[in-house]
């Protein structure tokens, strides 16, 4: 979905290809971004790190994965030309410390690119109400993340963290990400369809452990609540999006 949003661009930073020698994908997850970037830039050394060793073993020769905690002190021997991180909403306890590590590990003239969301569902036509199930769903996830000391709504805060860490030439680019096939624009309708599909399929993964293990909900309560959220998201009466 994120590739659709960015018109198939793996990163937006104005990095010249000849200057890309070392790239870090911090919190790489499945490793798909690092693998695709390694294929696209075969002369660059691409490192992806994550606490979970779920990345594939068959990867381009210039791509390497490490099991590492990106919130621990960074010990990379050589700086990076590009440090990239996305979709870490709700995963990080100390963003200022993380961004400071990025600053100290990026070569002078290099770039750090962070992608984060403002996960508050909204609408331009007022169809998303403050008491809607999708609004309650995100608020409950935020409450669980806050109880764990994690930041959920990272998007609006990224530029401030970068500035505080000492970065300059900071650019902010916001994208509207609809949920559902309601937009008239063809591209936005495709993004909305994919976003809705991943939300419906991943709803338990997003919430089940958080609601029951952290917030103390009963499993039956979560199942009923998620069913109502799904029904609302699939309905045609609301036109939600996030940024």
From TrEMBL:
Keyword Methyltransferase carried by entry: yes
Superkingdom to which the source organism belongs: Eukaryota
Spans through the membrane: none
Keyword set, alphabetical order: Methyltransferase, Transferase
Keyword Transferase in annotation: yes
Species this protein is from: Botryosphaeria parva (strain UCR-NP2) (Grapevine canker fungus)
GO BP terms in the entry: methylation
Coiled coil: none
Any one GO molecular function term: methyltransferase activity
Protein name, as recorded: Putative methyltransferase domain-containing protein
Alphabetical list of Gene3D superfamilies matching this protein: Vaccinia Virus protein VP39
Cross-referenced InterPro entries: SAM-dependent_MTases_sf
